[in-house]
Design brief:
One of its GO terms (biological process) is cellular response to iron ion. The protein contains eleven helices and ten strands. The protein has two domains: 88 residues, 3-Layer(aba) Sandwich (Rossmann fold); 115 residues, Nitrogenase molybdenum iron protein domain (Rossmann fold). The radius of gyration is 20 Å and the shape is globular. It starts with a helix and ends in a 5-residue tail after the last helix. It has 269 residues and is α/β, with parallel strands linked by helices.
Length: 269
Amino acid sequence: MRGVLLLVLLALAAPLAAASRVVSLAPSLTEIVVELHATDLLVGMLDGGERPAALAQVPSVGRYGQIDMERLLSLKPDLLLLWPGSVPAAQRDQLTRLGIATYTADPHGIDELIEQIEAIGVQMGRAEQGRARAQQLREQFYKLRAQYHRQQPLRVFYQVWDKPLYTVGGGQIVSDALAVCGARNVFAELKVPAPQVNLESVLLRDPQVILASDQAQLDAWKAWPQVDAVRHGRLLLVPDKGLERPSGQMIEATARLCQVLDVKAPVSR
């Protein structure tokens, strides 16, 4: 029944005709277009980070956080792929007034991400590719969740930055990736995507693992040997930045995270 309902919703969400001129307004959405083998439809993209070599000739419509509206309009798109966090609110309002068909993707969990990848396939007239990719990702996702399930999840502090101290909230998709790996975000009760926290609140939660993408940030925690993660040598580097880009590759990034956590985790499950 759930599958039938999803197909109905996808059909209702689809434009009257499949898009033929797509502009992606987030690097993660551009990755999804690539994964769905639909780069022939991509007439523009928002730059942010390293460009895939296959997209070297695709026109830019600005950089992360700022759209060149004149350039975007000159490309005559019939579908915009939007992640709200990549575009300022004022420009999102401006896009709405333009009346261009827009698909907004803002997944808060991996299940939702996979559904949105399938929906984007429908929007671009690549429904078959969308279904196939979604099925592949679901199989990988369910396998990971079963393999790394823990009766007592690991308490994990995921550090985004150190000065000031930022983490991820419970509504952020990275928090769901941690759950897949048998872990629990110690700040899961915070619904802000990237909340600022203080040192005392981290110490109070006594995480068993601290994750960060910078070794110097991890080493700084050694000043607090009373923390479980420090005491047991569980100051771990995030394997790669793929966790922070909600596209299909995030499933593989989550698998790498699970492997890292599993090697250093307490033996009991």
